[in-house]
Amino acid sequence: MSTHRPGRHELGQNFLTDRTTIDTIVDLVARTHGSITEIGTGDGALTLPLQRLGRHLTGIEIDNRRAVRLARRTNRSTTIVNADFLRYKVPTTPHVLVGNLPFHETTAMLRRILRSPGWTDAVLLVQWEVARRRAGVGGATMMTAQWWPWFEFALIGRVPAAAFRPRPSVDGGLMTITRRARPLVERPEQERYQDLVHRVFTAKGRGLSQIVAAASPEIPRQRVQGWIRKHQISPMALPKSLTAGQWSDLFRLHDECRSFAPARQTGCHR
């Protein structure tokens, strides 16, 4: 994708210029609390309005020339850092993330964000289809399902390509991610939970009844059917149709049956 200034094509920069979208992002951040970390400040389209919130703001900008220019225009509560967010050590203390993410690095940046500690809320502008999928609209992706116990994803709205300069080939999507105060699955169980989600998403079968049985043979078939009836899930539904609560309940069932051997003989009852 091209950029405002020659020679920066490799940075994949598309700058937000639409005032309505900028105001919406600032309003969403205003509803949160704590210091702000902005990913990709560019020329300050978001940075300058955000600093008017009166909170400490750290802006991360990969383009050294833009970082230097913007630093001259910010006030004392704002710090501009010339760094690549993918390698930047984010604070471990509570803060809010905000940013217009480079479309070509959206997935890598989202993975980095989800694995980073400290932040409580994120307001992100990404590709429209990515925003929809991450928020579970039309079915959740494996990435969303793997992180749902600890985060809530919400789609705010579509941002037309005309809102950026230079204009990208696709629309943007504004989304929020909020860290749950009470996780649906405890952190020490994260690796096992995410492994189960991966197995379910990649298992073969016609509908969840067969897919779950193939992905988690530890669970007796009657318990799989009981879980499906409990949540009023169609046996022919697919993993993408499950909700955060259904995934966490499936993990609890999987863990319960995994603890009892042989599961099919015991029925994995406590």
Helix content: 25-40%
Q: Biggest β-sheet: count, sense, barrel? A: 7 strands, mixed
CATH superfamily of the largest domain: Vaccinia Virus protein VP39
Query: So what's the overall shape?
Result: elongated
Distance between the termini: 57 Å
Low-pLDDT stretches: 1-10
Rg result? 22 Å
CATH architecture of the largest domain: 3-Layer(aba) Sandwich
Tally of alpha and pi helices: 11
User: How confident overall, as mean pLDDT?
Assistant: 92
Got a strand count? 9
Assign the CATH class of the largest domain.
Answer: Alpha Beta
Structural class: alpha/beta
Q: What is the domain tally?
A: 2
For the biggest β-sheet, the strand order reads 4-3-2-5-6-9-7
Strand content: 15-25%
List the secondary-structure elements in sequence, H or E.
Answer: EHEHEHEEHEHHEEEHHHHH
CATH fold description of the largest domain: Rossmann fold
Organism: Nonomuraea antimicrobica
Keywords: Methyltransferase, RNA-binding, S-adenosyl-L-methionine, Transferase
Domain Ribosomal RNA adenine methylase transferase N-terminal: 21-181
Protein name: Ribosomal RNA adenine methylase transferase N-terminal domain-containing protein
Plain-language structure description:
- Residues 21-181 form the Ribosomal RNA adenine methylase transferase N-terminal domain.
- Belongs to the class I-like SAM-binding methyltransferase superfamily. rRNA adenine N(6)-methyltransferase family.
- It holds the Pfam family RrnaAD.
- It comes from Nonomuraea antimicrobica.
- InterPro entries: KsgA/Erm, rRNA_Ade_diMease-like_C, rRNA_Ade_Mease_Trfase_CS, rRNA_Ade_methylase_Trfase_N, SAM-dependent_MTases_sf.
- This protein is of the alpha/beta class and 270 residues long.
- It has two domains: 9-179, Rossmann fold; 187-266, Orthogonal Bundle (Helicase, Ruva Protein, domain 3), CATH 1.10.8.
- Helix content is 36%, strand content 19%.
- A seven-stranded mixed sheet has the order 4-3-2-5-6-9-7. Strands 1-8 form a two-stranded antiparallel ribbon.
- Strand 3 (57-61), helix 3 and strand 4 (78-82) form a beta-alpha-beta unit.
- Helix 8 crosses helix 9 (221-230).
- The model is unreliable at 1-10 (pLDDT under 50).
